[in-house]
Amino acid sequence: MSDPRELLDDYQRDGVVRIREFFSADTVAEIRAELARYIRDDLPSKPKDARTLEADGKTIRNLWRLEQHNAYFKELGQRREMTELIAALVQGEPVLTGVETFSKPARIGSGVPYHQDNAYFCQTPPDMLTVWVAIDSVTVENGSVYFIKGSHKSGMLPSKPSGVTGNSIGLAVAPDTPESEQFCATLAPGDATIHHCEVIHHSNPNLTEQSRLGLLFVYRGTHTQTDVALQATYTQAVTATPPA
Ligand SMILES: O=C(O)CCC(=O)C(=O)O
Known about the structure:
The chain has a single domain, classed as Jelly Rolls (Sandwich). Helices cover about 30% and strands about 25% of the residues.
């Protein structure tokens, strides 16, 4: 794992950092097995909004709120190795607020429009972040996430409903930084990125034969509070395009 001071400096400057071998191969295998078990045995009895499906109406695009629905993922997200690392980045005591997947299945995995996560999280100050762990290999071809480094420093930009199921709100105007100048987060299984909730990012559809499964852990500092204006804008968007 990288030097904590360097990690903090890079995170504060860029709003996104990549960490190689964040989870071991054994942990990745354990996660993969538990996700398969959860989908097979537990998901059918969970509320409909515990998942979002792809356009085919049957393949999972996202699993949501695993920290509520599954003891293994809650425990994993609350491990001391995780929360100690996150504390410095959220400038306070971290709370795990979400564990979810962005599954991007082979051939039909949909894209994610340009957005800032705080349009969904609605927190002030924006001391909230996502640890995005690769379970599959993440390549340019199968839909890596692209980040605009430093964009978290400009605060929240105007947003608009996107109409995308599972990602109901996006930027009102796409940024003019070409993809070739964005940070393309290619990852090996077990590698991770950590991104600030106001850094601009997006991902493209997966048209390849290789699935691109990511497991996400979302944290905020205990000191953050809900921003009512952001919340009102988000409620409109998610009401127009619910996750399930
Ligand atoms: O996994 C993806 O393709 C997008 C992830 C994302 O938008 C996020 O982590 O906020």
